Amino acid sequence: MYEKVLPRMREQDIFIGQPLPQDGFNASRPQSDERSSITSRVVREYKNNPVFLIMPYTHDPLYVSWSKELVADLGKNPNGGLILVGGKIWERNWDKSPFAQIKIPPKIHVEMGINPADYPRVKHSFNPKGKRRFFYIGHDAWYKNTSQLEEIAKSLPDFEFAHIGGGSLKGWKKIDEFASLTPQYMSEIARNYDIFVNTSSADAQATTILENMCFGFPIATTYEAGYDFPSLIQLSTTDTVYNTKALLRLQDMDESELLEIANVNRKAAESFHGWSKFTDTILNFMKI
What we know:
single chain; six-stranded parallel sheet; 10 helices
C-alpha cells in the first residue's frame, strides 16, 4: 500500500490493493488519494486488467470521500471491482453514500472476518451487581466518537471505566497505550472487567467488537460500529441518558443472563464472521 512502484502486469494478472490517503492514515483526511502509491498507479495505468480496490467503508464523507476520484477511475475499467468492508448499516441506503453519484465498478459489501480459534473464551464470571466494570479498546479518532464515552463516564461517576489504546479519555483509566490481545492478556482483563463498550459514529466494523464477542464479554455498542446482532446491547451515538440507562441495566442483570448473552455473541462471531467466509466471499466476487 505504501510502496510507490508500478508493477509489470501481464494481461491476466490480478491486482488487489487498498487506497491510501495523501500523507497516510495517521494524518487528517485529505481531499484525494496518494497518487504516487502503488494502488493508485495501478488503477490509473492498467485500464483493462482485473484490478480490485479493497477498503473499509462507511457513509461518512470524511471517512471515504478522499478516495472518490480513484474509485471513479476504477469505474472506467471493464474488469475492475470494489470490495467494501463494513457492516450492513453501510450497505443499506446506498443513496446516502458519497459514491452514489459517481460511476463505480461492480461492488460487493463484505463483513469483517477473524479466526475465532485465535480468541478463546476467557470470561466465565462477572463482578456482583452494581460493581461491574466497563472497558473500551481502540483509539480516539473522530469516527470512534469517544466524546460520548467521556459523557457516559461523567454521568456514572460511581463506576469504573478503563481504556486500552491511543489517546486519552476523560473519566476512563488508561490501562495500556497498545496491547496485543492474546488470550493471556485478555484473561487478565477478564478478571477485572465485565462489559465492552463502544460508541462509534462511523466505523466500518470495529474488529475489537468481534474479538471481545469471542472472548466472552457482553458488548454495548452503537449500530454505527458496524454490527446489529440482537445480542448486542444497543447504544446511541449522542443520547447519553439512553446510554447510561442501558449500562445500568447491565449492572443489574443476573449473571446467568450475562453468560447467555456471551454465549450467543460467540456463536454469532463463529457463524457469520469466520475468516474463511470473508475470504471465500471475496474470491467468489473476483471469480478466482
